[in-house]
Write a structure and sequence with these properties.
- The protein has 183 residues and is of the alpha+beta class.
- The chain has two domains: 150 residues, no CATH class; 31 residues.
- 39% of the residues lie in helices and 15% in strands.
- The protein is built from five helices and four strands.
- The chain has a two-stranded antiparallel ribbon.
- A hairpin with a 5-residue loop joins strand 3 and strand 4.
């Protein structure tokens, strides 16, 4: 921890920073030992953070890691991460699945080629997941503008089907708008 961290305030609140927080959380990136010597954790972004928004949210970081690992259609990095670090975390913390997915049911998925694979089907804790993405958004804003974001943040998660039809419609409209901005 550097000497100048004490003079900074947290990226989320006005409390004095006591440490730095990785944005996005470090646990989302595979460890070098799991990725055949490739270091996907170098040059990660950090922001000044208080204990509440770093140490005390580590369970939320683990929750986010487990939730994202379960998204069908992940790329090879996500697949390897799921079968290494995430698997170890789930083996170590048996209640992580139940705290990550509500009404989890074991089902069998099938690839286009017909290969079968085990899946857990269920609903993530949407409020907790949204909060995790809000932390990331606030952190990225802090990195870009060197100040804390003072407004409201709206998070719509593309892989979530919202039960509220208005939220689902808003998510689709926001996604279309974002695609137009990018293109």
């Amino acid at each position: 921890m550097g000497k100048n961290i004490i003079t900074k305030t947290c990226y989320m609140c006005n409390s004095l920073a006591t440490s730095t927080e990785h944005v996005p959380p470090r646990c989302l990136f595979p460890e070098e030992k799991d990725f055949k010597g490739v270091n996907l954790r170098k040059n990660l972004l950090t922001v000044p953070s208080c204990d509440l928004h770093n140490i005390e949210k580590s369970q939320d970081d683990q929750f986010l890691m487990a939730t994202l690992a379960g998204v069908v259609g992940n790329n090879i990095v996500g697949y390897i991460h799921t079968n290494t670090k995430v698997k170890r975390a789930l083996d170590r913390k048996k209640d992580l699945v139940n705290s990550t997915i509500f009404n989890a049911k074991k089902i069998t998925g099938k690839t286009i080629e017909g290969l079968k694979f085990p899946l857990l089907k269920g609903s993530p804790d949407i409020n907790r997941l949204t909060k995790c993405f809000e932390y990331i958004a606030y952190g990225l804003y802090f990195i870009e503008y060197k100040k804390r974001f003072e407004g409201e943040c709206s998070v719509f998660i593309s892989f979530v089907r919202y039960k509220n039809p208005n939220l689902e419609k808003t998510k689709i409209l926001k996604k279309k708008h974002l695609i137009r901005i990018i293109l």
